[in-house]
Amino acid sequence: MLFAVKMNVEIPRDLDEQVRVDLVEREKTYCQELQKSGTWRHIWRCAGQYANLSIFDVADNEELHRILWNLPLFPFMTIDITPLAQHPSDLAAGAR
Amino acid sequence: MLFAVKMNVEIPRDLDEQVRVDLVEREKTYCQELQKSGTWRHIWRCAGQYANLSIFDVADNEELHRILWNLPLFPFMTIDITPLAQHPSDLAAGAR
Amino acid sequence: MLFAVKMNVEIPRDLDEQVRVDLVEREKTYCQELQKSGTWRHIWRCAGQYANLSIFDVADNEELHRILWNLPLFPFMTIDITPLAQHPSDLAAGAR
Amino acid sequence: MLFAVKMNVEIPRDLDEQVRVDLVEREKTYCQELQKSGTWRHIWRCAGQYANLSIFDVADNEELHRILWNLPLFPFMTIDITPLAQHPSDLAAGAR
Amino acid sequence: MLFAVKMNVEIPRDLDEQVRVDLVEREKTYCQELQKSGTWRHIWRCAGQYANLSIFDVADNEELHRILWNLPLFPFMTIDITPLAQHPSDLAAGAR
Amino acid sequence: MLFAVKMNVEIPRDLDEQVRVDLVEREKTYCQELQKSGTWRHIWRCAGQYANLSIFDVADNEELHRILWNLPLFPFMTIDITPLAQHPSDLAAGAR
Amino acid sequence: MLFAVKMNVEIPRDLDEQVRVDLVEREKTYCQELQKSGTWRHIWRCAGQYANLSIFDVADNEELHRILWNLPLFPFMTIDITPLAQHPSDLAAGAR
Amino acid sequence: MLFAVKMNVEIPRDLDEQVRVDLVEREKTYCQELQKSGTWRHIWRCAGQYANLSIFDVADNEELHRILWNLPLFPFMTIDITPLAQHPSDLAAGAR
Amino acid sequence: MLFAVKMNVEIPRDLDEQVRVDLVEREKTYCQELQKSGTWRHIWRCAGQYANLSIFDVADNEELHRILWNLPLFPFMTIDITPLAQHPSDLAAGAR
Amino acid sequence: MLFAVKMNVEIPRDLDEQVRVDLVEREKTYCQELQKSGTWRHIWRCAGQYANLSIFDVADNEELHRILWNLPLFPFMTIDITPLAQHPSDLAAGAR
Question: What residues does each domain of chain B span?
Fold first, then answer.
């Protein structure tokens, strides 16, 4: 089951620099592990923004919530979620 | 070069029914030809909406504009565009 | 899996009166059948509005989309969807 | 009498950690006591958000206000309220 | 129990003139009967707008909904509702 | 001459506690004196909000501005103003 | 007593042309009579918009409402009102 | 050439009191000098707001920008600009 | 003196086709004549939108208003205007 | 390939003054180097705002993102991006 998730990041200027570096590094590791498991299907940078557009493939809303809630940068994010369904014009759908 | 495109469709109630059916059929054909050529990379239905979220892979803004402008349903759409770039955490990027 | 769905209804003034009555009747039947099956868990009227707030229990986004898309009044609705997860303070959750 | 209440929580980053833990704990206790008394009828986590959607069953606006105003996390919440009425399609209403 | 209700009226230009006159007259009668019964406590014209701000005193949300739903001009109104409670600085409250 | 005034209060968390208590107390006194003089005709708490809806009866815009500008909590308020006029359906108007 | 009033005009395309011409002419006459009486103190065109920004000098909200409500183009306008008071830096104020 | 300019002021609470007093005084002097030169044609307080609506008469956009940029309170203002033109109904225009 | 102007076009579906074609042709001629005279300095299509972003070089607000007001498609446009000034980092400015 | 980019700048008041001066100077140098290379085609000050409207000529979204991300003032900017295409009325287009 797919969800489009837009994440806007706004790290406070007074956050300790080492804390910031660690958070960003942990965020990257966390993201890549979920890519390897097939859960975090796509991640794109929104050009000119500290933001990304991502596609998640999860079992249900609970899994989606758990993943987002545990993002290392979650406290500094604004998150918008769009539940996705198969589009009747999607050729890939027929192949599944 | 990727763009995320959100298309909201609002077909007027008084549009002739046969015209509507033809437009929707042409839209589907147009969409699937662009999927086959690799230009329309993804199309998802936004659940509960007459709307889709799509990812386009185009040469430049001119191609993106020409594709969207020629959508059979373009006159009945509201379109939002987000230019995308490679995300530093994207594993797929390294494989390209 | 639960979703909160807010439906605002705006039936055009020039819709044929009999068509309107039939649509509203079919909407009611459709809604009550889904209540009986346990899918449409709650439906409340938003006071002073031609709108409702509903809770759906569905298998996935596909089922949610199919149900909403087939609402008899769907062409006259604006729909907002909020995916829900279990709240850590919810006593009912422990009982499930 | 029912109200839907959406609560968005934003706890300041510089709040003392022990104070935060205590507040969240008191919030949970407060919430669960009101669930036991039948006042706080439902609480759901909005997936991917530090937010909840709740349904309250209160005697009047005064009781609703008193409950929300006394939430331990009230100073850190943005709250939206929707007064609810019985929907004419609601099967449960007939059983009451 | 008090509610503040803001009603914006937008009567379609092509509504039959006699129908319009009748609706406005019925609206006035309906409004004044509720004033006499003490339910529609205040009604003010918002200066320069086809809109009013009103205060209703009702038993519960059900009564509020029924009153608003049956306004002769309801199909042409946009309605915003604010549930009110007693303010701790209100002198009149002590006198009740 | 009447104005509806919506006041949203947001007192900064780091304001000295005694300062806060004094301000709130002065606000209450200020409000009640204006009630006694008949200027601050109504004040209602917006349920679930640190906000009020008030009705002022003033000689002109100058008096309205002076009253609001001198509210002890003015620096911490967001204020919306709606000029009110007599409504043609208002029964009370005839009695004045 | 001064008010700033922003009027946006949107005349329906299907309004009879002669009706439109008459309305615009009556609007101009109405406006200029109020200028001569000193009530409509200023009127400026908002560049590139079918809109104006005006300053009215009226006795009270009732007069402001009556003037705006009777504008020949009132049914086709969206109106925003800002009550004005004397500014402490205004040199002209001292001369009054 | 005229511009309407709306200035909303929000001075941070932790600004040094003497700095604040000096800024407000310099703002007043700056404003009044431009009134004397005929550039700052009108300034009105928006009732109940720390805001003003002003009319500037400048040679061009460059002069407008230079004047606003050099306002002592500029760093604490949100500014909206409306370019104005002569209105065809303006009687004063014929007299110029 | 420069202005950035964003024009969104929405031609009603029921406009006579020949009228539409003529309007669009006249719009193009009008636009190109102003380009030749140096007034309409730039015009770009907003990709995927029936909209353009343009830069005008005019003597004053009056000229800007007259040009926009006389656009053949003006009745079907929504227009946003941004007055521009020279930027201190602009190299081209030094060369002028 | 052209993009219109609107940059709003908001430098925190408590940023060290020397840091601020250095950032603004580096921003200017960065901007002018991109002007010399033909990438930053236009930069205009939005009158009365700490903001600019710019036109970039880049190879693709990646280059646009890299340029914006590396702006010395990027952490203090809000950025809006509009992808541009050639307009059918643009005379300059024929000359390219």
Answer: 2-85
